[in-house]
Amino acid sequence: MDNLNRLIEKISLENQIGLEDIPSIDLYMDQVIQLFENKFAGSKRNENEKVLTKTMINNYAKGKLFIPIKNKKYSKQHLILISLIYQLKGGLSINDIKATLDGINEKIIDGDIDLERFYNSYLSLSRRNIESFKEDLKHRASETMEEVAKLEDKQPAQLEKILLVASLVNISQLYRRAAEKLVDEIIAERES
């Protein structure tokens, strides 16, 4: 696919909130939303899409997806957890996210986790995932071109895109299902 490198650029893979992006002072909700909008603007599919809204944050708080807020301000820990929620919601239900993060929230409350270190580990894995994704996308595009060539169609570019979309959705579903099974294991371990 000729436009593969442009596609990779358009999806803004490197957009993450790093620890250096999080102020050391607590933020009000509007400031949190602004931080996320600024950082993830390139990740939006269109201009009308919202990265984060007050309703989303309130629902996360009501659903106890993160530790309680103090004085309507969000600490560095809250911002890390909201960032994790933002990343997880692309592939998991809110209930699965809650089940996944419950253990982290408990460790924060008990003082048993260095959340910044944990988040840096996540960011490190994320950077490696991006590199793997770029290589995998090129490989899948190449395989798609090979399959389309077998079809001898008069509009191969269109079929190539359709097959690549189907292939990417398929692999995405496989990864999501694997993640859901891991969430099920987390839930089962908590219940026993």
Automatic annotation (TrEMBL):
<dbReference type="Pfam" id="PF08876">
    <property type="entry name" value="DUF1836"/>
</dbReference>
<protein>
    <recommendedName>
        <fullName>DUF1836 domain-containing protein</fullName>
    </recommendedName>
</protein>
<dbReference type="InterPro" id="IPR014975">
    <property type="entry name" value="DUF1836"/>
</dbReference>
